[in-house]
Structures are given as structure tokens and as C-alpha cells.
């Protein structure tokens, strides 16, 4: 992932691009963000309430207004009290929380969904 620009250093807001798209996110590293290349883990900090089937050709990560749109293939769906849904976004796996058990149960492996989040968090790590 490449940080293209530090938009708001005090809040850790950065503009980034990676193999699956371009968006703005919140840097969660222990040191301030700088332009450059990083290995990061993505996190969606909010529960996902709504999603839709994406249009063909939609990138896995993009911006829609002030929201981040995430598109991925469902790999696994938590049962009963397990709110976690596993999504493949490019070569990465993203875990999201969907609290509505009825809606979550309608998701099946290989479904492709797209949802909006007000924010995506970027956690850098060392290989």
C-alpha cells in the first residue's frame, strides 16, 4: 500500500492506493504517517448494516462521497452469535461484523457484496 498524501496529520487521515483501489483512510500506526510504501492490515471499525451486489468492474476499495466502498467475495459467515463475515478483497482477507443474524444468514460463500463505511483504518506491520 502506498500513502500518496497525508491529508490531516493530527487525525492520521491519509490518501492511499493499493492493488485493489484508492481511497482515504485513518492511519493507526504508532508513528505518524508519511508518504511511502507500507504493509498494512485494513479494518472496518463499524458494524456493516447494509450491502448490495456490486456493479461489474467495481474496485475492491474506492470512495463514494465521504464514504469508503468495499467490495469483496464472501468466504465464510459466522453462525448464531458470531457476527464475523470473512471477505476476500483482492489477495487480502477482511473480517467485517454484521450483527443482524437474519441478514447475515442470507450470505453464502462466493457471494460478492459491496458496502459503505464512513472510515477504513490502516494498521501497518513489519514482515
TrEMBL record:
This is Uncharacterized protein. It comes from the Bacteria. It comes from Planotetraspora thailandica.
